[in-house]
Write a structure and sequence with these properties.
heterodimer; A: mainly alpha; two-stranded antiparallel ribbon; 14 helices; globular; B: mainly alpha; two-stranded antiparallel sheet; 2 strands; 73% helix
Chain lengths: 330, 291
Amino acid sequence: MVVKAELKAVLAAAGIVLLAFVLAPSDFHLTVLTIAALHGIAAVALSLAFGCAGVISLGSAAFFGIGAYGVAFAVQKAGIPTFAALALATLLAGACGYLLARPLLRLDSHYLAMATLALGVVAYIVFGQARPLTGGFDPGITGVPPLQIFGFQLAGPRKMYWVSWTTLLLVCVIGFNLVHSARGRAMRALRSSEIATSCLGVDTVGLRVMVFSLSTALTGLAGGLYAFFMGSFAATAFEPGFSIDILMMVLVGSTSTLWGAVVGALAITILPNLLEGFELYKLLVFGLTMMAIMVFFPDGLVQSVIDGVRSLRRKPSEETSILRRPGSPL
Amino acid sequence: MDALAQNLVSALISGAIYGVAGLGFTVVYNATKIMNFAQGEFLMMGALISAFFVTSFGLHIVLAIGIATIATVMLGVILDRWVIQLGRRKTPLNAVMITLGAAITFRGLAVVVIGRDVLFEPPFGGIPTITFGNVYLSSQGVWILLMLIVFSLGLSYMFSKTRIGMSMRAASDNPRAAMLCGIDSRWTSTLAFGIAAATGAIAGAFVAPISSAFYESGLFFSLKGFASAMLGGLGNPVGAIIGGMLIGLIETFSAGYLTSVYKDAVALTVLILVLLAMPDGLFGRAQVKRV
């Protein structure tokens, strides 16, 4: 049950995606936009966990990598059809997330932050060193065949552009459905007061575990698509810094709406391609931005700007819906 | 037999470093209930700044460590006073994210100001290498163990006997009650960050001659320091040091007898397993919700 306004927004986004495809001057631009969409899936997944349930993951890269390597194994070693391999990799990443979150979410959620950070580093070391399985840093995995759905070969940036953006919009629709369901309302309540919510009979830990597992599964899905899109990749693609990039996408956009994550993914993926010499200052800029956002705009940068503009334009007498108040997780 | 003893000695030394990192974690956690993701960056800054001044300007090692400590303490104090305490939404998760941002900022500062080179600091000297039969304890190792002893005695004296230490404990137990007794909990929190930064910077400078100084090393110091603190029971300073020793032991022996490429992965897997199976650590108080 997607709210009408959001359905419109999804359609508008689909229009923009089509327009961008027509206007994109070259395959290089389409490749960047495809990567942005894959990052966007991971960012929306993180935004679901962080924005809705207040559960933070600093190991997105690990789950992204599990998805990518999962696809590569399933297709190359087990000979599973590509589409089924993608589904398997998604499930695998979700199962890993569940196994980690189920015991850990008994604790404060920042223990999960530390554990996922550690997992990201462990996974990176394993991806890089388990050479017989993963190919390590060089050559890594090579020759993953393109994705096939119902006999259609989806190879090259033009077709994968559509696959990735369609998947991203579908993930957004799933996310909106979740946010507006009874569980979504429970999650929003949970974010405000865990004690009050559990008094209402909501299984708060179960809810958090569910969202976190869903989030890791979707991150794995993005990783699986990445494997099909790139064809060959090495462990360097899943370094711990990549998790921070995805976190930055959520923070730059919005910590509370899914669209923010998409905007953030576009910004963080495209901007470094435009700015020369950004690599040297990347860590400093990211770190300062992250601190500034958490101190001054805890709802996310773009979100705070939108809220600010909205409150300027609104007449004081006008009643605002509770769902549209700044800080409401919608 | 000698190999075993030699491994024990090197485990003791790396364990001492992790223990001090865990101690810094514990001090901040006890005073503010914040998990400081930037703790390892304090060690990295201490190592990098002191190594930079020694190798580029030929400064005396004592002076270089002094500069590194002062600079790191300033960063730590700024982080608490003018960043974390300014936060608009004071939830623990926000504070954690701010310290994570600070960790990335410190890393970025190191890249921009000092560069991406791996720096090597000469050993301090002054103490002869100690030998028992075929087992060596390097002079730098002695310095590190001395530092650990001074820090743990100093901090335990401070927390149990001095007015400042007791007010820090009070402020963490119940900030409001402490405030009513005239304790400024914001000041104790800044003090905790200052202590964590100072101990971290000195530990970093002491370990630099052994392990080299590099801008990315802070992440491992953070995670292993946290592993030490968790293994010993979060909030328990003695536990943090014992936890650090255990992490050092596990890491050294897995490198010596299994394979060295997974050395860091083994230590961090221990962290994940501790979190999963015994989050109270060895000497901690129960804080788990059973569900």
